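User: Predict the structure for this protein chain, please.
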Amino acid sequence: MSKIHVKTRINGEAAEFLCEPDETLLEALRDRLHLTGTKEGCGSGDCGACSVTVNGRLVASCLMLAAEAEGAEIGTIEGLAKGAELDVLQRKFVEHAALQCGICTPGFLVASKALLEKNPDPTEEEVRYWLAGNLCRCTGYDKIIRAVLDAAAEMRRA
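Assistant: Here is the predicted structure, written as structure tokens:
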């Protein structure tokens, strides 16, 4: 099989890579582009650890072929912080102790960012519904939900 040349934008920066026709976006991000913040938890789209945005839409990168990223705008966990300054969501996850082992955290943060871009004033029920595709085995979900709601409130005040 011949490799496929992909030109895309990742976190606002132009990116190019070669990939196998059956290679997932998750594999390309981690193995070709060395963006290892996106995690593989299940490989079947059930856990949310590999969540990224593609043209503003939340997707499981383990279920998307890397070749499909041609011309797309990809957002990963690496795009949240601005240099050494954490994104408000990252700060609130730390403040609310909403992270532990770190496997699920990038997916939760990317999914939460996508939610708040669509709905800057979600209810607790809306946050729980939106994040239902992200699984955590360490923290429980209450701290995560509180962190997202607190981040939303701070973002609205800004």
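Strands lie at 4-10, 13-19, 51-54, 57-60, 73-75.
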